[in-house]
Amino acid sequence: MIDLYYWPTPNGHKITMFLEEAGLDYTIHPVDISAGDQFKPDFLAISPNNRMPVIIDTVPSDGGEPISVFESGAILLYLADKTGRFLPKNVRGRKTATEWLFWQVGGLGPMAGQNHHFGIYAPSKIPYAIDRYVKETNRLYGVLDHHLENRTFVAGDEYSIADMASYPWIVPWKRQQQNLDDFPNLRRWFDTVRERPGTQRAYARGEPYSSRPAVTEEGKKILFGQTGARVPAV
């Protein structure tokens, strides 16, 4: 039913978490981002921003032609609407879940991503940049920790796409130079999500693609060296 174009990154894990929780049939099509698979013409036709994940729903609810969806947040919303699951149906709960979904895609993901880049991948270690993004990641952890003080899950009592969006970006907390024990509510929530069978199945689906060599210098050029002039036309 769902074709998933995927690589085992935090954004990729978001989608396998949903699909495993919902029990939807899906097929993984690996997109090796270090090898440049994201720039192949067939992939750009469904992902004009040359990023994964992307899904193709071969049996959409309107009964029409297959639908492709790019951007991980949009995919989570699409799948929640398709299945009627993991997004509160009441207006206030849906509001909260979508707020925190957007918080992740606009804040936690980009800031933690820059944290990874300057701390791990950048050819020159720039103290200001590392300090900037480590501190901003820490601030965002604090925001989520405070929000979770009286909540089981991000949107309240029920597990939702807001949890699926944020969890994979907390998994590499050590790489982000953070300490989960400094954030007791976040730690409790993190352990709860980690122990869900759906989470464990989702991460297991990524294992065949995770045992890959370290990113080469050529791979870094592919990942980090693109400009508008260099992106292939669709």
TrEMBL record:
PANTHER family: DISULFIDE-BOND OXIDOREDUCTASE YFCG, GLUTATHIONE S-TRANSFERASE-RELATED. Residues 1-87 form the GST N-terminal domain. Belongs to the GST superfamily. PROSITE patterns: GST_CTER, GST_NTER. Coiled coil: none annotated. Transmembrane segments: none annotated. Residues 90-212 form the GST C-terminal domain. This is GST-like protein.
